[in-house]
């Protein structure tokens, strides 16, 4: 007690000043390690829960144990190699100190010796951790090697199955490189120990290495050089996948210089390794040093200088002849690798034989108009990119809903006929929520999902400006042609714009619902009358987080304590995450390259996201390697499917898998599509029972499968060059094509379009289309399309699905998209029609997709124009006109039929609304009882319009099975058509005497020049 109160205590224990700092450091290290372990465990644990919930536990287990195995095997191997060699260097250190040593080394040795065991363990552990972590990244290579399936094709140079290059060679390269790295690290670690303990004596003139050091270095360097020899052996096979100046694959220099050089270097390396091993007994460095110098010199002379000499002095003077056989093999391999080997161009004139000229009568022009109308009835004139704002108006009352920046186009059977639709999924957009309401509870438990799908006809136009002239396709989800299920699940919890995570589910059944959704009142007549309602998610998707442990793990995963603190998280709660369709497919199939554009479809009363999955490699022998990103780039491209590709470059691609993600419960289903693909077979062997066979695809889903867009872009990119199959022509490059620039966005390539298009034989197909122009030129070179409909009319698999058809233009002056766009935009009639939108203060007109379509044996170009009327009902661009170009003539109208009529020099006002008349077709004061008399051309146009309407009504009656109505409408159409012909004859008869038309104000230039020829 006295010591406590003494002013100057005599003996007080004082702690060392560094003790507290050491304790803080230890505490900090423990906390950091604990945090790392906790976050790592939380990540693995929550991943296990997620994979279990989606039904792909096997994928998680296979990846986890493969990574753990690789980490342990390679980490332990590297760590053990370093530890054993460091121990041997210490164990066989010199027992007596050599005079003349460096005194500083003694100080380091004295400092290290007391902790040598811990230091050895620490160095080995750190090196092992780095090596094991590096090995984890090669799990794909290991599984491909382990489960390799044969291609049953061999390369032309080494006669090895292609599977060796794709599956085995990358793995063996990694193993050999790892052995060389381990040998070098062991050499460095051994050198440090020998230096500290006297095995290396740099200060003396002779015997600078102890006997033990010489043995150890000889063995390690021998292993390194031996591995290098094996590396040279493997490098030989890389010659068929290396890039050179002209192409990918073996070339003349490769076969005649590099291949012999690597064979020689392999032999030199083996001899050099043998010399190092012999040095274990000889204990002299003369021969190993000579051998190593010879290897380095040979690598420079044979591996670098000699190939350069061959290339510059043998190949370049006669490059075309020398490289011809190698180019031919590159052509063949590339066409095989990208599945375009079967594509041969077909000659196509591009000039219609029935194109009107000055001598063509109006009746003949009218018949041509009818024929074109029939072929272009289903062409989507609505541009999915330009009508987004119109779709946004459909949920204007609810700012927290939105649609994708670029909408999707699909076809549905409506009234018995395939009809193109523009589709937009009404997804949740939390950016539209009032900032005052953006708290954690609202963002993650109230605003949780989107609601429904919005559809509009892509081939129909309304006169209602308020609707953006869109004709809305209400209720497609319950159409009998689409689904036999009466109930439609329209809630969207999994979509392209879904929040990162949402917590759903209520504690008790009687608790109030809190999630905001939409409902349609019973008396509502359109979706625009939808109202807010509260709901609760009751689907199977989502991980249950009722327990405290799971809540803690997800609090760590998302860095959010409200998982533990919020009353909205209860015993029945589920957490929904990984909600973007592409991300979900990548998680369950990490070996797939996923298409960048998932698209929605209504299947059996549900909204399903459909995603195309590709198998790719950059190791296909002799096939051209290109950047995947550059091949699919165009004016609409927003993202790429590169997430699962180890490298951006590929030289093989197949549409291997069709994947679906249920928009409500997130169910992911994978279906094998190309069941013969060896890469798919290999991954199915590595992850059995994760991909269902093609035969399991439901019929309702099959009807909405389409040809993958990214694959089509890759194939058209390769066809631009590899449509040439002769090596000499290929080398000259005079017939090389390119995808034209998008006239509307000149900095990017024109995207492909999905349309009902003529395939060149007169049949109309749901197609994916594009065009080519000669490289650096503007004229049209060819037109490529494929049948994108996976099923036939009777629901069976379409045998022609995905078959590319290439039409090569025989006319070298056929205008390309850029030329046509310039002609359209500079046409006097177009300029006059668009003048009202070019005045000061008005929004300038926006030109939509420029479609190039074959009709009969000619080509027609179609382009919609969007603009805002100064006094219009809408504040966003709407479809105002359609411009067409056919047989060199440009036309413009408010719809496609009117524009075609204008391009054929029929009635000038065909594209405008007809006057209010009695429609009797007799030409007697047809403008109404008090109106002015119509010109004869106006009367003709009116009769043709009425005939067209009657034919459309007849088609509808025929689809409905109403034979009587069909006959009545046909009779009505024939009557109106007859009236039009009678009026034409009357007008031409009056004009015949003086070669002048009866009504100058409305006669077309053609009619002025030439009377009708019957």
Could you walk me through the main structural features you see in this protein, from its secondary elements to its overall organization?
- The protein folds into five domains: 22-325, no CATH class; 344-375 and 717-910, no CATH class; 381-498, no CATH class; 580-705, no CATH class; 914-1014.
- Strands 1, 22, 25, 26, 27 and 28 form a six-stranded mixed β-sheet that branches. Strands 15, 16, 17, 20 and 21 form a five-stranded antiparallel β-sheet that branches. Strands 29, 30, 31, 32 and 33 form a five-stranded antiparallel β-sheet that branches.
- The model is unreliable at 1-9, 477-485, 908-933 and 993-1014 (pLDDT under 50).
- The radius of gyration is 38 Å and the shape is globular.
- Helix 9 (252-282) runs antiparallel to helix 10 (286-315) and helix 12 (362-375) runs antiparallel to helix 25.
- The protein contains 28 helices and 33 strands.
- It is of the alpha+beta class and 1014 residues long.
In short:
The chain is an alpha+beta fold. Helices cover about 40% and strands about 15% of the residues.
Spatial gap, N to C terminus: 134 Å
Number of extended strands: 33
The Rg value, from CA coordinates, equals 38 Å
Proportion of residues in extended strands = 15-25%
Helix coverage percent: 40-55%
- General shape: globular
Q: Helical stretch count?
A: 28
Low-confidence stretches: 1-9, 477-485, 908-933, 993-1014
Total number of distinct structural domains: 5
Largest sheet: 6 strands, mixed
Question: Could you report the average pLDDT, rounded to the nearest whole number?
Answer: 84
Which structural class should the secondary elements be placed in?
Answer: alpha+beta
